[in-house]
Design brief:
Elements (H helix, E strand, L loop, with lengths): L14 E4 L4 H13 L4 E2 L11 H11 L3 E4 L7 H6 L1 H21 L4 E5 L28 H21 L3 E6 L1 E3 L12 H15 L3 E5 L5 E2 L1 E3 H12 L3 H6 L8 E4 L5 E2 H12 L4 E5 L8 E2 L4 H5 L8 H12 L4
Parallel strand pairs: 1-2, 1-3, 3-4, 4-5, 5-10, 6-9, 7-12, 8-13
Antiparallel strand pairs: 8-11
Length: 326
């Protein structure tokens, strides 16, 4: 199979983006198209249920993709994770197990498994290095999801050792962008704040509610930056890529900006972008979640990538794209 390496990009290679309608998957498709890739495989959930192992195997056998971005997952914020914990662990385990095994049987050249920074311990030292995985208890509110993603990392590592596959895992910080989920019942903090601020401005309301104390710190990465990082990882030259698959440590790379802010500061930035001048009211009866989740991004920086879009600029781009839908 052709190598997807620098400086010659094999833009004719078959690339499957699992979860192409999601926040990250849609951004990866845009980035691949920008680079001139012409054989991007996409399937909706109606066309292919990724939790159906037999259907996934048949798809891989028929299409024979050379490279796979595993961006499909059941995701959500604190409320969704607390409400549907069984679905979060069961569906994510089923999706990744089906895709990883089918990729092995189809002899996929490289696979990038996408997770989340919630895989790390709740009270992890800051900034969080890749080797801090499994060194302490997880945040209870999203433990089922986190455990599923940790299992995905372990699958990649185990398959590499046993079958000689070339599977890598990328753990992004909190992501946001135009294709985010803005449903207040199961969205993450930034899209929820964006929708609340927009609706309050339109309705002339005096205040918006923010969950928790406003003191937890969060690092946020724009979806297009994440997509560029993902493609950057899979198109690395063979020696650089293989060095990341060292059997002595998990094949894991953090992806983030290296900067964070408090929830209060985030809410203030959202309000400034939206033009909402009302009050922020913090509901301290609601959970804060993990106190801080800033990733150490030294590894991804050493590989030649770093984020380009600042937080306020990313929020402006997102709001401009979705304001008429909120």
């Amino acid at each position: 199979m052709a190598q997807l390496g620098k400086p010659m990009l094999d833009t004719s290679a078959k690339v499957y983006v699992a979860g192409h309608r999601g926040l990250v998957g849609s951004a990866i498709v845009r980035e691949l198209e920008r680079l001139g890739f012409t054989r991007i495989l996409k399937r909706t959930h109606a066309e292919l249920d990724l939790s159906d192992a037999d259907a996934v195997e048949a798809f891989f056998e028929q299409e024979k993709p050379e490279y796979v971005f595993l961006a499909a997952a059941k995701v959500g914020g604190i409320l969704a994770n607390n409400t549907y914990p069984a679905e979060f662990i069961a569906q994510n385990l089923a999706i990744q197990s089906s895709v990883v095994e089918a990729a092995r049987k189809a002899e996929v050249s490289r696979l990038l498994f996408l997770g989340s920074s919630c895989i790390y311990p709740k009270m992890s030292p800051q900034p969080i290095r890749e080797e801090y995985l499994l060194t302490g208890p997880l945040e209870p509110t999203n433990r089922p999801y986190a455990l599923a993603k940790i299992a995905g990392i372990e699958m990649c590592w185990a398959y590499n050792r046993q079958y000689g596959t070339h599977y890598l895992a990328a753990m992004p910080t909190n992501l946001y962008g135009p294709d985010d989920n803005f449903d207040l019942n199961n969205s993450h903090v930034l899209p929820a704040l964006l929708r609340k601020a927009h609706r309050a401005k339109v309705a002339g309301e005096p205040a918006i509610e923010v969950w928790g104390t406003g003191t937890p710190r969060r690092e946020l990465l724009y979806s297009d930056d994440m997509a560029k990082a993902c493609v950057h990882l899979l198109q690395m030259d063979e020696p650089t890529y293989q060095a990341l698959l060292n059997e002595e440590q998990a094949p894991l790379v953090n992806i983030g900006t290296g900067e964070d802010c408090t929830i209060r500061e985030l809410a203030e930035t959202v309000c400034r972008v939206v033009g909402f001048e009302g009050e922020l009211r913090f509901d301290t009866s609601k959970p804060d979640g993990t106190p801080r989740k800033q990733l150490d991004v030294e590894k991804i920086h050493s590989l030649g990538w770093q984020a380009e879009v600042g937080l306020e600029e990313g929020i402006r781009r997102t709001y401009a794209a979705v304001a008429n839908k909120l």
